[in-house]
């Protein structure tokens, strides 16, 4: 890492190396004050129905 790149990284302006899925537990922890681990599930979670979404953009002509 060269001088300018290292300086940018030290002040939080360097290359992004985390995706939203990996960042979610950190944000949730800061908001709630306790650790929150994300959970990926299929189907339902206990008695709570999970959100669903339709395909976007919709397929036209079908």
| Uncertain residue ranges | none
Class from helix and strand fractions: mainly alpha
Please report which band the strand proportion falls in: under 5%, 5-15%, 15-25%, 25-35%, 35-45% or over 45%.
Answer: 5-15%
Please give the count of helices: 2
What is the residue-averaged pLDDT?
76
Distance between the termini: 52 Å
Radius of gyration: 19 Å
Question: Which range best describes the helical content: under 10%, 10-25%, 25-40%, 40-55%, 55-70% or over 70%?
Answer: 25-40%
Count every beta strand, where a strand is a DSSP E run of 2 or more residues. 2
Q: Main β-sheet, in a few words? A: 2 strands, antiparallel
Order of helices and strands: HHEE
Please give the order of strands in the largest beta sheet: 1-2
Oligomeric state: single chain
- Write down the overall geometry: flat
Region (Disordered): 43-62
List the defining traits of the structure above.
62 residues, mainly alpha, two-stranded antiparallel ribbon, 2 helices, 2 strands
Would you write up a description of this structure?
Strands 1-2 form a two-stranded antiparallel ribbon. It is built from two helices and two strands; from the N terminus they run ααββ. It is flat. The model has no long low-confidence stretch (mean pLDDT 76). 0% of the residues are buried. The protein is 34% helix and 6% strand. It has 62 residues and is mostly helical. Residues 43-62 are annotated as: Disordered.
């Amino acid at each position: 890492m060269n001088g300018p790149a290292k300086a940018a990284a030290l002040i939080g302006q360097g290359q992004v190396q985390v995706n939203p899925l990996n960042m979610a537990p950190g944000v949730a922890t800061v908001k709630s004050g306790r650790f929150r681990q994300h959970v990926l599930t299929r189907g339902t979670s206990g008695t709570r129905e999970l959100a669903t979404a339709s395909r976007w953009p919709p397929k036209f002509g079908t």
